[in-house]
Amino acid sequence: MEETNSETTLAAYYDQNALAFLEATRDVDMSEVHDRFRAALPDTGALPARILDAGSGSGRDSLAFRQMGYDVAAFDASPSMVAATRDHAGVPTRQMRFEEFVWEHPFEGIWACASLLHVARVDLPSAVSRLVDHLSPGGALYLSFKLGEGERIGDGRRFTDMTPDNLRYLLDQSARLRQPDIWLSRDCRPERASEVWVNAVVQKG
């Protein structure tokens, strides 16, 4: 995504609607997806695996992984979400966009839950490639998108929707990734149970 008004608008949406967003997402039970992601993490022996929460939002997942004993770091494009993650999860959190992502060390796991969906479709391959660059050998990447086709604007935010085939094609563009585990799920929020998500866990070869 070009650094244009779309990125500014996205960050502004989360900053202006921070309280409502935190209340709607912070207590959602993601344990089933956490377990599926954790099962794909490489063995690190006695050391805790390093997990990056990419687009951390409320800090819900950062906190969960930290409480499980992982070494967690996070980033988000919104200053309000950066502050929320730091306050709620107590993990190092940076303000950063996917398009400028870089880190000083790799991770055994990168968790991108409902975050890459704000990246323009044309920019998704490079955004995913940046994440894969920062996975250790055998490291696992989780990513999720709303089920659908194309790009749209909703609630003042850009969404890039995916089908399972679209997501498989996106991941297949990286020769460094193994075959992905792709599945559909219902939104975990009861008031949005009709919404369907496309999820994937994929390991770096």
Report on the architecture of this protein:
- With 205 residues, this protein is α/β, with parallel strands linked by helices.
- The chain has a single domain (5-203), classed as Rossmann fold.
- The protein has helices spanning 5-16, 18-25, 31-38, 60-67, 79-89, 124-133, 164-172, and strands at 50-54, 71-76, 93-95, 107-112, 135-146, 151-154, 157-160, 181-186, 196-203.
- The radius of gyration is 16 Å and the shape is globular.
- 38% of the residues are buried.
- Residues 1-5 have low confidence and may be disordered.
Q: Low-confidence runs (pLDDT<50, min 5 residues)?
A: 1-5
Mean pLDDT: 91
In total, the number of strands is: 9
Stated plainly, the CATH topology is called: Rossmann fold
Overall domain count = 1
Q: Give the number of helices.
A: 7
Query: What oligomeric state do these chains adopt?
Result: single chain
Helix content: 25-40%
Within CATH, the superfamily carries the name Vaccinia Virus protein VP39
- The dominant shape is globular
Q: What is the CATH level 1 assignment?
A: Alpha Beta
Assign the structural class, choosing from mainly alpha, mainly beta, alpha/beta, alpha+beta, or little secondary structure: alpha/beta
Summary, kept brief:
This protein has 205 residues and is an alpha/beta fold. It is built from 7 helices and 9 strands; from the N terminus they run H-H-H-E-H-E-H-E-E-H-E-E-E-H-E-E.
